[in-house]
Amino acid sequence: MSSIDKLKEYYLSTPEVKRLKELEHYVDHNEKIKKAFDELKDIQKKLVSSKEFHQPKQYQMYLSLYNTKKEELLDMPFLEEYLELVEIVGNMLKELSNSIEYSMAQKING
After folding, report:
1. How confident is residue 4, by pLDDT bands cut at 50, 70 and 90?
2. Closest Cα partner for 24 from 37, 10, 42?
């Protein structure tokens, strides 16, 4: 088994990744959650656009709407835990990537 396979196996066996995979199935197959995510993304686009085009009134309106919709989304079952796990696993992978990068630089530079 290669080093990469061992790393992959290790990460897939962590409790965080296992739970994330369980919740992914729930989130991916829930139409209410999908719709709420789509609405949030649409508002986010409008929020960014209003900021880019220096429209403070629209920006404040979309910011308020975005925060409201985000809270509604986080109130859905398992979603807050899912988003926290996405962040945790993402950070784990960043740490691994940084560690690999550092090790490679050490070997290259002596």
Report:
1. confident
2. 37
Q: From CA 52, how far away is CA 100, in angstroms rounded?
A: 37
Alpha carbon of 50 to those of 5, 15, 42, 56, 66: distances in Å?
A: 46, 41, 12, 7, 13
Query: CA dihedral defined by 35, 37, 42, 45, rounded to 10 degrees?
Result: -170
- Write the single-letter amino acid at 83: L
pTM passes above 0.85: no
Within 10 A of 19 (CB to CB), how many other CB atoms are there?
16
User: Distance between CA atoms of 57 and 43, rounded to whole angstroms?
Assistant: 14
